[in-house]
Q: What sequence folds into this?
C-alpha cells in the first residue's frame, strides 16, 4: 500500500465523482472536485468536504465511518472498496469514485442493494440441534472456526466484483451469501445441512473460483478458500458420497 | 452501464402527496433495541413494521465492541444480579431509576443466553461456558463478548431472527414527526422514503422509539452518521418528557490522530485486557486519580483524568496520552482485539502489538433521553414507548461499559411486549389533517430556499460549538456562549436548503436533522445550566462538588406551549430491602 504513496506531501486531492439519477442516463456524468488534503484522509472525508463546501446535492451512503457497517461501498479507481477505509494517499493523481455496478443505481454514489434481503431470507436459518443441555457448552476452538465468516459487514463489495453475480444474478446467490451459509454451517451446534440448498437453489456450481471476491473483502475474509471451496466439497460429499456424509453426521461434525 | 431497472421515480420537488399505510406496532429504529422490540412485538401477535433511516443491519449498534454486561458468574462465581444492580446505581451516581436498574440486572442474564440461542457465538472459557472480561467499575468480570465485534454479532443475530420471522421492514426511511389523535394518543408518523423521495404516512396503534443516541451533535465523537438524536426531537415535539439531557458520556479513549479518524473509539476492552495509560513523562497517571482501580476506574473518572493530564501539559504533541497493550504480545492482541489491531494499522499506520496508541476522550453515549417507565418502557404519551439509547432511566450520570447492549435487549423486549399488548387493547387513532399538512409543509421547505444555508456545514458548526462550549468540563459562561451560538445557528437553519432532486437527497434529510440537532442542543445546554453541581459525566468547574442535598434529582425537559421548560424531580428512593443491596 505504502509503495503507491506520493513522494511529496500533497496539498490537494482531485476527485472525479460519478453523478446522476438511476432511470435517466442523460443525467449521468462525472464532476471533478479538488479538496484540501489532510493527514490520514480517506475518500469519504473528501466526499464530505465536497458536500459541505462545494455541492450539497452530492449523495453518498455512509454511516459508521469506521469500516464497521459496510454502508459506504463504491468503486474507487475501478476497484470495489469502502470509501471510509480507503486513504486518498493510496493513489497518485486523480481519484475516480463510482457507484457499485452490480446493483441498480439510485443516485450519484448510492445504489439499491435491497434485493439482498430476499436472498438472505432464503438461506435456512440457524437451527440448533435438539436435546442440547442448557446453558450450552461450546469449545473456544469451534467458536474460532466460525468467527471468520461472522466478520462479514455486508458491504456487498464481493457481490459487486463477482462476474457471475453480474452476469447471472438470478442464478447464483453470490459470495456474501455463501459466507453466510458457511457461518451457519460452521456453528458448532447447528443441526441442519445446507448442501441441498447450496446446490439446488443457491447456484453454488456457477462459481468458478476466480477468487476475485476474497481479494477485495475489507474484512479480510478468505471467501473462496475458506467458505466457497469447503461448501462445494460438502455438496459433493453429500450428493456423491452418502457414506462420508452419514459418517460425519454420526460423529457430529457434519 | 447502470441500466438495470432502478427504483427511481421523478417526483416534483413541491409534491406534497403521501401514501398511507397502517400497522399495529411501528418500530422506529433497527439497532439492537428496535430489532429486539420487533421480535417481541411480532411474537406477541402484533402486525409489526420496522423503519430505520439507514440500511437494515447497519445501525450504530454494529460498532459496539467490548461486550454485554451480565452477571453470569462464569469467571467470578461470586457475581450476582444484586452486585450488578449495585454497581449500576453507584456508578450512575445515584440518579438512575432504581427499578429500571433492578429489572435490568435481573433480566439481562436471560437476554444473553437468549441471544446465544438465537445463534450468537460468544467467546468461551476453558470449560466451554460464555467467557467474561473485566470492564471499568464492574466489581466482577462480567462482559460477555465476541472478540471486539460484539455489536456486529448482536445485530446480525437479531437481523437473522427478524428475517426468519419475515417481519416487514422499510430501510432508508426517515421519520420526521409523530402525531397524536384528539385524545392525546400517539397514532401516526410522517416519513421520507429516502430511496424514492416519496412521503409516507404510517398509522399505528402503538409506536416504539428506538432511534439511538445523539453523539453526532459533537465534533469529536465515536458515533455514527445516524446518531443525530432524531428520536429526542420526535418525542419532545409529541409531548413526551425528556430527562437528564445534560448527561453525555465522554469515553476516555478515542483516536486522536490522524485528523480524519479523530474520535474513533478505542474500546475499553484494551484496558480490560491489561492496557496501561501513561502521560508524555511516562507516568502511569491513573495511580494518582484512582489508585485502586487505575485504568479500570469509572469512565467519567478516567476521561476527566486524561483531560486533566492533557490540559496541564503532560499530553503528547497531538494532545493525547498513551495507551499501551504491547506487553500482551502479538498473538493475544490479534485474537482478542482484532478490530483494534486493524483499525490502528489501517487508519494510523500504528502496529499496536509493537507501538503505543495515542488516545484522548471522545463523545460516546447519551445517558439522557426520553423518560421511560421501567416495566413497559412507556412514555407519558399513551401508546408511545421508548427503548435503547434514546430512552432514559438506567444509566444515571454515568453508564457502565457493557450496560448499553444489555439495556437494548432487556428494554427492547419489554417495549415490544407492552406495545403489542397496547395494540391489542386499542383501536387505531386518527391524526388531524392540519397537523399532517403542517408537517408536510415544514419538511418540504428546504426545497424552496434558494441560496439558503448548507445543511452539512450547519451540522459541522453545531458540532464545533458543542465541543467547544459544552464539553467534559463546563461552566456557566461557556454554556451561555454555546447557547448563544446555537441560537445563531438556529436562525441560519431556518434558511437551510436541500439541493438536487427528491430522490436519495442527503441534503434534504440532513436539513431536517439540523433542526432536530438544534432542539437537542438547546435541551442539553439548558439542562446543563440547570444542574449546578458536578455529578458523573456532568462536570461544572463553577460547581465542582457533588451536591446530594439538592441534586439527587432528575431534570425533565418538556415543551410548554412552544417554550422549552425544565422540572427538577427528586429521584425515587428504593424500598429498604432494595436499598440494602446498594454498596457504595
Ligand atoms: C464505538 C462504540 C462502541 C460501543 N461499545 C459498546 C459495548 O461494548 N457495550 C455496550 O454495552 N455498549 C457499547 N456502545 C454503546 C451501544 O453500542 C449503543 O448505545 C447501542 O448500540 C444503541 O442501540 P440502539 O438500538 O438504542 O440504537 P442504534 O443502534 O443507534 O439504532 C438506532 C436506529 O434508529 C434509526 N433511526 C434513528 N433516527 C431515525 C429516524 N428519524 N427515522 C427512522 N429511523 C431512525 C437508525 O437508523 C437505527 O436503525 C458502543 C458505542 C459505540 C459508538
Ligand atoms: S470466486 Fe466465485 S464467488 Fe468469488 S468472485 Fe469468483 S466466481 Fe464470484
Ligand atoms: S464477505 Fe467481505 S466483501 Fe463480502 S459482504 Fe462480507 S465483508 Fe463485504
Ligand atoms: S461508513 Fe461504515 S463501513 Fe464505511
A:
Amino acid at each position: 500500500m505504502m509503495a503507491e504513496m506520493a513522494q511529496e506531501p500533497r496539498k490537494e486531492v482531485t476527485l472525479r465523482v460519478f453523478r446522476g439519477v438511476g432511470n435517466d442516463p442523460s443525467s449521468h456524468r462525472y464532476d471533478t472536485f479538488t479538496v484540501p488534503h489532510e493527514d490520514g484522509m480517506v475518500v469519504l472525508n473528501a466526499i464530505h468536504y465536497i458536500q459541505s463546501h462545494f455541492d450539497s446535492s452530492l449523495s453518498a451512503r455512509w454511516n459508521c465511518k469506521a469500516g464497521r457497517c459496510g454502508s459506504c461501498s463504491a468503486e474507487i479507481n475501478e476497484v470495489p472498496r469502502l470509501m471510509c477505509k480507503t486513504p486518498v494517499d493510496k493513489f497518485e493523481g486523480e481519484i475516480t469514485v463510482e457507484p457499485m455496478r452490480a446493483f441498480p443505481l439510485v443516485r450519484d454514489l448510492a445504489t439499491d442493494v435491497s434485493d439482498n434481503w430476499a436472498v438472505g431470507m432464503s438461506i435456512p436459518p440457524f437451527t440448533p440441534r435438539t436435546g442440547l443441555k442448557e446453558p450450552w457448552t461450546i469449545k473456544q476452538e469451534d467458536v474460532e472456526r466460525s468467527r471468520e465468516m461472522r466478520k462479514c459487514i455486508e458491504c456487498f463489495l464481493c457481490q459487486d466484483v463477482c462476474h457471475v453475480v453480474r452476469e447471472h444474478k438470478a442464478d447464483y446467490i453470490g459470495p456474501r451469501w455463501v459466507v453466510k451459509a458457511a457461518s451457519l454451517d460452521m456453528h458448532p451446534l447447528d443441526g441442519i445441512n445446507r448442501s441441498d440448498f447450496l446446490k439446488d437453489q443457491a447456484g453454488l456450481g456457477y462459481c468458478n473460483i476466480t477468487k476475485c471476491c476474497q481479494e477485495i473483502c475489507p474484512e479480510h475474509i478468505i471467501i473462496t478458500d475458506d467458505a466457497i471451496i469447503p461448501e462445494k466439497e460438502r455438496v459433493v460429499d453429500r450428493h456423491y458420497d452418502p457414506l462420508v456424509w452419514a459418517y460425519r453426521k454420526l460423529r457430529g461434525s457434519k | 452501464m447502470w441500466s438495470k431497472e432502478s427504483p427511481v421515480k421523478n417526483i416534483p420537488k413541491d409534491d406534497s402527496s403521501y401514501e398511507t399505510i397502517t400497522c399495529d406496532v411501528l418500530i422506529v429504529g433497527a439497532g439492537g433495541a428496535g430489532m429486539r422490540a420487533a421480535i417481541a412485538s411480532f411474537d406477541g401477535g402484533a402486525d409489526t413494521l420496522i423503519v430505520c433511516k439507514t440500511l437494515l443491519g447497519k445501525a450504530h449498534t454494529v460498532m459496539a465492541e467490548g461486550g454485554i454486561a451480565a452477571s453470569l458468574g462464569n469467571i467470578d462465581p461470586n457475581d450476582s444480579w444484586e452486585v450488578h444492580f449495585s454497581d449500576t446505581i453507584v456508578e450512575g451516581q445515584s440518579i438512575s431509576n432504581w427499578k429500571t436498574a433492578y429489572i435490568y440486572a435481573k433480566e439481562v442474564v436471560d437476554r444473553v443466553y437468549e441471544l446465544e440461542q438465537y445463534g450468537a457465538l460468544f467467546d468461551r472459557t476453558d470449560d466451554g461456558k460464555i467467557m467474561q472480561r473485566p470492564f471499568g467499575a464492574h466489581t466482577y468480570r462480567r462482559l460477555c463478548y465476541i472478540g471486539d465485534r460484539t455489536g456486529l454479532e448482536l445485530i446480525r443475530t437479531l437481523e437473522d431472527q427478524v428475517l426468519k420471522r419475515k417481519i416487514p421492514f422499510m430501510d432508508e426511511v426517515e421519520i420526521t414527526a409523530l402525531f397524536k389523535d384528539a385524545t392525546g394518543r400517539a397514532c401516526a408518523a410522517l416519513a421520507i422514503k429516502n430511496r424514492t423521495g416519496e412521503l409516507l404516512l404510517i398509522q399505528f396503534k402503538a409506536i416504539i422509539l428506538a432511534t439511538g443516541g445523539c453523539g453526532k451533535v459533537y465534533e469529536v465523537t465515536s458515533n455514527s452518521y445516524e446518531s443525530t438524536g432524531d428520536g429526542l426531537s420526535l418525542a419532545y415535539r409529541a409531548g413526551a418528557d425528556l430527562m437528564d439531557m445534560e448527561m453525555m458520556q465522554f469515553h476516555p479513549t478515542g483516536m486522536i490522530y490522524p485528523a480524519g479518524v479523530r474520535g474513533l473509539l478505542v474500546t475499553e476492552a484494551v484496558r480490560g485486557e491489561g492496557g496501561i495509560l501513561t502521560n508524555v513523562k511516562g507516568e502511569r497517571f491513573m495511580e494518582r486519580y484512582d489508585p485502586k482501580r487505575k485504568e479500570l476506574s469509572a469512565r467519567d473518572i478516567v476521561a476527566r483524568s486524561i483531560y486533566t493530564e492533557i490540559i496541564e501539559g503532560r499530553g503528547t504533541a497531538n494532545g493525547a496520552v498513551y495507551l499501551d497493550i504491547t506487553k500482551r504480545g502479538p498473538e493475544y492482541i490479534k485474537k482478542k482485539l482484532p478490530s483494534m489491531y486493524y483499525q490502528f494499522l489501517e487508519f494510523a499506520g500504528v502496529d499496536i502489538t509493537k507501538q503505543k496508541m495515542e488516545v484522548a476522550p471522545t463523545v460516546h453515549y447519551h445517558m439522557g433521553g426520553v423518560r421511560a417507565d421501567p416495566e413497559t418502557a412507556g412514555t407519558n404519551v399513551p401508546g408511545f414507548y421508548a427503548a435503547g439509547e434514546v430512552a432514559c432511566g438506567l444509566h444515571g450520570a454515568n453508564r457502565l461499559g457493557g450496560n448499553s447492549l444489555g439495556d437494548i435487549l432487556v428494554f427492547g423486549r419489554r417495549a415490544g411486549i407492552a406495545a403489542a399488548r397496547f395494540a391489542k387493547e386499542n383501536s387505531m387513532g386518527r391524526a388531524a389533517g392540519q397537523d399532517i399538512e403542517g408537517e408536510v409543509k415544514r419538511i418540504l421547505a428546504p426545497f424552496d430556499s434558494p441560496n439558503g444555508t448548507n445543511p452539512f456545514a450547519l451540522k459541522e458548526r453545531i458540532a464545533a460549538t458543542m465541543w467547544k462550549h459544552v464539553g467534559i468540563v463546563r461552566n456557566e459562561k461557556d454554556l451561555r456562549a454555546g447557547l448563544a451560538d446555537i441560537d445563531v445557528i438556529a436562525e441560519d437553519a431556518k434558511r437551510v436548503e436541500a439541493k438536487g432532486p427528491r430522490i436519495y437527497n442527503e441534503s434534504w434529510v440532513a436539513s431536517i436533522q439540523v433542526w432536530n440537532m438544534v432542539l437537542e442542543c438547546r435541551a442539553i445546554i439548558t439542562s446543563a445550566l440547570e444542574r449546578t453541581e458536578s455529578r458523573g459525566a456532568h462536570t461544572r468547574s463553577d460547581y465542582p462538588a457533588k451536591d446530594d442535598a439538592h441534586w439527587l434529582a432528575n431534570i425533565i425537559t418538556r415543551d410548554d406551549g412552544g417554550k422549552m421548560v425544565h422540572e427538577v424531580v427528586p429521584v425515587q428512593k428504593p424500598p429498604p430491602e432494595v436499598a440494602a443491596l446498594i454498596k457504595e
